[in-house]
Amino acid sequence: MAWHYSEKTKQIFMDAVQGKPGxxxxxxxxxxxxxxxxxxxxxxxxxxxxxxxxxxxxxxDIITEAKYLTFGCTSAIAxxxxxxxxxxxxxxxxxxxxxxxxxxxVDFLEGLxxxxxxxxxxxxxxxxxxxxxxxxxxxxxxxAQGVTxxxxxxxxxxxxxxxxxxxxxEPYLRRKIKELNLRTIxxxxxxxxxxxxxxxxxxxxxxxxxxxxxxxGAGEPAPTTLASAPVDDTGPSAFQLYRQIExxxxxxVRPVLQGDGGDxxxxxxxxxxxxxxxxxxxxxxxxxxxxxxxxxxQTLKDQVDKRIRVVPV
Length: 313
Ligand code: FES
Fold this sequence. Notes:
With 313 residues, the protein is an alpha+beta fold.
């Protein structure tokens, strides 16, 4: 699947990986602020560091340098560069830097594909984490300065884990759903990645859809069983749905996977949940589950029905 990146995003990425002057790939030694977000296992990780010009009053420290180490795709690296560019040379105190949000990163890059919005969120989260580290080192009480933390480091995030694949807690989800105006499960996957791996947390009791419903009111119904699918009288019968899914897998998905030496087997369909197994080169691939999520599920959503979700078996 090809993502559409802005020319600016592509240029920033190319400049960064080539280490051109003015780019920020690297790590500051003995940094005044160190923040991390994401994990390599989950596909994206960012370590953000900054240095300040110290003032006798820590509240007047000024950020003079920022760097990052990022594991991830084009947009993850471009978003990290954007974050540094938005901070460096602006004479910002660390607390003032917290005004930079994920939308500022998206705007700086002149847009990001919807499926890559989580890269901008990762930048904003790493920044907040680094400012928390700076405050700890400099003895600054952020709460006393009126700072409300919204990232994964917020204290109340010691809560129930809703998405086990990404370790996403309920308080964090509730806060981010409101802050980022996330209205659907697809919005959550795009911004936070939660729900984007095995999918088990999506419609489980107390899962993503329940939290969305509690936040915004009743929304998308949970998938039904095959016997009762489709969910409306005008949709396809269960048999027709099976034939449609099978056709898309045969004609669209399988050729793509076979092009990379892999293959796919349609194992079962229950309601809107499609169970698939990857074969060939794809079966041993660490990104297999993600491949299913990104390629198979999105293709089926686009060509059959947006309620479909794919679960790897
Ligand atoms: S538990 Fe949320 S994607 Fe697996």
